[in-house]
Design a protein that fits this description.
Elements: E1 16-25, H1 29-40, E2 45-48, E3 69-71, H2 73-85, H3 100-114, E4 117-119, E5 123-130, E6 133-141, E7 144-155, H4 161-165, E8 170-172, E9 183-184, E10 187-190, E11 208-209, E12 212-213, H5 214-221, E13 231-233, E14 240-242, H6 255-279, E15 287-291, E16 296-297, E17 301-303, H7 311-315, E18 323-329, E19 357-360, E20 372-374, H8 383-389, H9 392-412, H10 421-427
Parallel strand pairs: 1-2, 1-7, 2-4, 7-20
Antiparallel strand pairs: 3-18, 5-6, 6-7, 8-17, 9-16, 10-14, 10-15, 11-12, 13-14, 18-19
Helix pairs in contact: 1-3, 1-9, 2-3, 9-10
Length: 428
């Protein structure tokens, strides 16, 4: 928003509503993991989010499943708990498929058991700074405007909303031109004949039908910028999660742009359902039953940290001595910046499947700001590297590490950047 007029408000004090050891902003997988681990490590912890439920894209975003993988005890705990709750799945196993209602309960229970406090319906507005050090955050909610003070703050908002307010340096999107990956609103259809249904799980999955190849048909028939077919099983019979809406040239840090993305994607849903009925085997009688309450933003700010992860680090499987995430695996999953399907730089089929890379602690530490850690897709990495580490399991593992690091820093009375990484690794 470009404001050219200003009004002067009367100066007034902002009440302090809470004082905690660790304040986590954003309750997606990274933020939930950070709060759980900070609390488990002994810190008084508060998790703040503007949505009505914890989980971010994994719940409010109606994501179909966890894709990619990582070596993380907490991630495995989440998968086992989810399987135990999911209807239609065997107990005592692990499941990557997400039932949003059950996933929400898993996050709530994990947070409560750890002793972390949760504050929803609350927007983090701006950082409280003392020099270059974050001392807390101003928040706004139904109770009014207040200050939350903390010894350590973790920005897991995805877009790095509070980190940006500190003046921490960042790059928007692709380094060459600032382009960012498209936005998507997930939705579910019911009435699917699961015995005949097709489930193309990637852009490069071709499905031959009596009426033609499904991906080619989508590109030809669906309204631009939609134009691909991604369909995923759910935990319930007859219900499929659809990842086919598409909004391009969206800035996830701009409210007007986000509003347009929401409208664009919702308008595409009827056309997508009609397409599936006509062309996708098993979907002849499908109908939409629910759409996500949180649109999926894939890319915005990449902050400059003590270290910046690169594409080469991933391809060369670099094993950093100061790792805080290890065993990370995913593709360079870059969606087309100008339409449907993959961007020309996206790699899926050709990506080597045995890559197990690490992420060093320096990627979570803003270069010139103290009192703050990054967790999730806003960490320090290039556009190409980000397309790989933005997967939910890897973001969860970042949060796991950030929560441990913050709790250790508070307990030992040291700066976040001065925490001994071996201490973090021992806890992981």
């Amino acid at each position: 928003m470009n404001c050219r007029q200003f009004i002067q408000m009367d100066a007034c004090g902002i009440p302090v509503s809470r004082k905690v050891d660790v304040l986590v902003l954003g309750a997606g997988p990274a933020g939930c993991a950070a709060a759980i681990m900070a609390a488990r490590t002994g810190a008084k912890t508060l998790l703040v989010d503007f949505m009505s439920v914890p989980g971010g894209v994994s719940t409010a975003g109606m994501m179909s499943h966890y894709t990619g993988t990582v070596d993380s005890k907490l991630y495995e705990e989440v998968l086992h708990r989810m399987a135990d709750k999911n209807e239609g799945e065997a107990k005592g196993v692990r499941s990557v498929y997400i039932d949003q209602v059950q996933m929400t309960l898993v996050w709530i229970e994990l947070l409560e058991e750890a002793g972390a406090e949760l504050l929803l319906y609350t927007m983090a507005c701006e950082p409280i700074m003392e020099g270059n050090c974050v001392k807390g955050v101003i928040v706004q909610n139904k109770s009014g405007r207040s200050a939350i003070l903390a010894d350590a703050v973790i920005d897991a908002t995805g877009d790095g909303d509070i980190a940006a307010g500190t003046g921490a340096e960042f790059v928007m999107g692709r380094e060459s031109d600032g382009s960012m990956q498209p936005a998507t609103l997930m939705f579910k259809v019911a009435g699917v004949d699961m015995e005949r249904a097709v489930f193309p799980g990637s852009f490069e999955t071709e499905v031959q039908t009596d009426k033609g190849e499904l991906q080619a048909l989508a590109k030809e028939i669906l309204p631009h910028p939609a134009g691909h077919v991604l369909l995923y099983r759910s935990t319930l019979d007859g219900i499929v999660t659809v990842n086919m809406t598409n909004a391009i040239q969206i800035d996830g840090t701009n409210a007007d742009s986000m509003t347009q993305a929401e409208i664009t994607c919702r308008k595409q849903i009827p056309a997508i359902v009609a397409f599936l009925r006509e062309y996708a085997p098993g979907y002849e009688n499908c109908y939409a039953i629910a759409a996500a309450s949180l649109i999926g933003i894939r890319e915005t700010r990449h902050f400059k940290g003590v270290y910046t992860l690169t594409k080469e680090d991933i391809l060369e499987k670099r094993q950093f001595e100061d790792w805080v995430v290890r065993g990370a695996q995913f593709n360079f999953d870059i969606h087309n910046m100008t339409g449907g399907s993959l961007d020309k730089t996206g790699v899926q089929k050709k990506f080597p499947k045995n890559v197990n890379y690490t992420i060093p602690y320096g990627c979570l530490i803003p270069e010139k700001v103290d009192g703050l850690l990054l967790a999730g897709r806003n960490i320090s990495g290039t556009h190409m590297a980000h397309s790989n580490y933005r997967a939910m399991p890897i973001c969860l593992a970042m949060g796991e590490a950030a929560g441990v690091a913050a709790a250790i820093a508070v307990k030992k009375g040291v700066k976040l950047r001065d925490v001994q990484v071996k201490c973090i690794q021992e806890c992981l």
